[in-house]
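Hi, here's the filled form for the chain we discussed.

Project: internal
Contact: R.S.
Residues: 208
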Amino acid sequence: MEDLITKINALKETPIRETVEKRLKEFDELREKENDEWFSELCFCLLTANSRASSAIKIQNQIGARGFLNSPKENIAQTIKMNKHRFHNNKAKYIVGAREFKNIKEILKDKEDFEAREFIVENVKGLGMKEASHFLRNVGRKNLAILDRHILNLLYEEGYLLEKPKTLTPKVYKKIEETFNRIAERLKMSSAELDLYMWYMKTGIVLK
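And the returned structure, exactly as it came back:
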């Protein structure tokens, strides 16, 4: 288990640290943006569910905040499909349905991180614990774990999990999140920062 701590501390002494800090600064900057930019990020996280983040970024850039708010469902689905991104019809439907929460920044402004995540999971169709945590991290909330397959695999490989969970129920998610957050505390960093280092360890890149 100590190996992971050692590896991340070593990474902090490399140029990757500058990349991670730049990404965290971008999240802080997005926190200050208006509702439409937050909604665009919500749609990005809808796109990432069971799909590649890299192609979700391309789709987000092509559609833009205004498109997520106003484009017909068919146009959104076509853009998703053109990028060879999975589940284009369902994801377009979820994005259009999420317009009910186009003022998402205002909705969440008085909710602390875990309460905000519960609200999103319960109300925004297409977003589970992982995607809701991802969205909140990207708009500057730093205390939540994004337990995707890369992070779970690394926790398992480093001995923090006895087995990889077959399903991530909210109860299981929160239990693993406690372990993840303890690692962040050991490293004296936020959960958001730890996620970026661990994601880099498994993928070789630092995405949002």
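Let me know if anything looks off before we file it.
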